[in-house]
Specification:
With 430 residues, the chain is of the alpha/beta class. It has 2 domains: 6-59 and 325-429, Alpha-Beta Complex (Aspartate Aminotransferase, domain 1), CATH 3.90.1150.10; 66-323, Aspartate Aminotransferase, domain 2, CATH 3.40.640. The chain is 38% helix and 16% strand. The longest helix is centred in the C-terminal third of the chain and has 22 residues, at 326-347. It is globular. 48% of the residues are buried. The protein binds pyridoxal-5'-phosphate. Pyridoxal-5'-phosphate (PLP) binds next to helix 5.
Length: 430
């Protein structure tokens, strides 16, 4: 990458000196400010944003209505702990009115991982059972509860022992099917296999399963259509709770307000995060009242959970999404983006797979299309070149070889065009 600017270099020195290196690798950029789907660094360099932070800034950076709501609330009231506030109650009503009708109670916390942890505790209390089924490649957060449910060895390695009672089964990562089968001929063999895994591994105390509508951290891995509905039916038949982790797939990201709408899913517990505050820390567990009523008063709460500042921000997020028709825009601009990314795939053999919907796509890079050998070093080089040329993008994936394309939902067709052109030029020179 071209030399970083002088202010960037100075800040990176501070980072090296005072911060640990445990955070994710990113291109060496120090963000200064951002607007909509554009970012400027501390040296004034400009970038089009394909990150949304980490799928957080759904309504765009520094949205004036969101900034106004935060500023107004900050001058009124910041924290009440568990005392209700108008902001929290208005938000609770909004969430319940917007999510599927069978979900009628919501509990607010602060991070996605905290919400997943709360959901697990609710599932255990409501069923009186303790085992949870989760998936290979799944990611649900970094604290011990969610980490125990994670199917990514790199994340949990060296932290054991983890929570007992977790059963892991394969997720349909069709581009790299662990059974070397191909959809639809496979007839979703992974579901049959999962059933067998549970039969063998469960001690007879399965409380529920937790699944992502698409696996984010694993490399934006989307299951084939119909898989999630069948998984839900399996959970019903087993009489266990179906917990859907929509921490990153919600608030319009997939071209629907909730990813569950694509297949008409009816989760017992729905977990929300990231886009719900579009930058303000807030997350939520939405569930059927009878599940939440298993908890007694005082059994669950959190210092900053449902704080009025984050709730005011989230209410503004709902208003912006509705007023600016961001869900519809994510669907239409996303279709345009997908078309352009598929054109790049046709042209560049190093792209093995492009997958996604709405405004979330994974571009998986390989050394060879036949062997599908992952190309993580190449992706790093491409990411650095993109950033150098004004496209802010990151990478992830089980093999570290997937470029994440997840711009704020306010991205315009012109910026889509411009950003894909930057990637195209970079790929042509590799
Ligand atoms: C699906 C999913 N669940 C949970 C989490 C954890 O959220 P947080 O980092 O806010 O704890 C993430 C974060 O990336 C996620 O993608």
């Amino acid at each position: 990458m071209k030399n970083a600017g002088p202010k960037t270099q100075a800040f990176l020195e501070i980072s090296n000196k005072y911060e640990p290196a445990c955070m994710n690798w990113q291109a060496p950029v120090v963000w200064d400010h951002a607007q909509g789907a554009e970012i400027w660094d501390v040296d004034g360099r400009h970038y089009i944003d394909w990150t949304s932070g980490v799928l957080v800034a759904n309504v765009g950076h520094a949205h004036p209505h969101l900034a106004e709501a935060i500023s107004r609330q900050a001058q009124r009231l910041l924290n009440t702990f568990d005392f209700p506030t108008p902001e929290r109650l208005h938000l609770a009503r909004k969430v319940i009115e917007t999510t599927p009708p069978h979900l009628d109670k919501v509990f607010f916390v602060t991070t996605g991982g905290e919400a997943v942890d709360a959901a697990m505790r609710m599932a255990k209390r409501a069923t009186g059972k303790y085992e949870i089924l989760a998936f290979w490649g799944g990611f649900h957060g970094r604290s011990f509860g969610p980490m125990s449910l994670t199917g990514l060895p790199k994340i949990k390695k060296n932290f054991g022992p983890l929570l007992p009672g977790t059963i892991l089964a394969p997720y349909p990562y069709c581009y790299r099917c662990p059974f070397d089968k191909a959809h639809p001929d496979c007839c979703l063999f992974c579901l049959d296999f999962m059933d067998k895994v549970v039969n063998v591994e469960s001690a007879g105390s399965l409380a529920g399963l937790i699944v992502e509508p698409y696996q984010g951290t694993s490399g934006f891995v989307f299951p084939p259509k119909g898989y999630l509905k069948k998984l839900e039916a399996w959970a019903r038949q087993r009489q266990i709770l179906f917990v859907l982790d929509e921490v990153q797939s919600s608030f319009g990201r997939t071209g629907k307000m909730w990813a569950l709408e694509h297949e008409g899913l009816e989760p017992d517990i729905l977990v929300l995060g990231k886009g719900i505050g579009s930058g303000m820390p807030i997350s939520a567990v939405v569930a059927r009242g009878e599940i939440l009523s298993a908890l007694e008063r005082g059994e669950m709460s959190s210092t900053t959970g449902g704080n009025p500042l984050s709730c005011a921000a989230s209410l503004a997020v709902f208003e912006i999404i509705e007023k600016e028709k961001l869900v519809e825009k994510a669907a239409s601009n996303g279709a345009f983006l997908k078309e352009k990314l598929l054109e790049l795939k046709d042209k560049h053999k190093m792209i093995g797979d492009v997958r996604g919907m709405g405004l979330v796509y994974g571009i998986e890079y390989v050394k060879d299309r036949t062997s599908k050998e992952p190309a993580p070093d190449l992706v790093r080089e491409i990411v650095l070149k993109c950033v150098e040329n004004g496209l802010m993008v990151g990478k992830l994936g089980i093999h570290g070889n997937v470029m994440r394309v997840a711009p704020p939902l306010v991205i315009t067709p012109e910026l889509v065009d411009e950003s894909v052109a930057i990637l195209g030029r970079v790929l042509s020179k590799i």
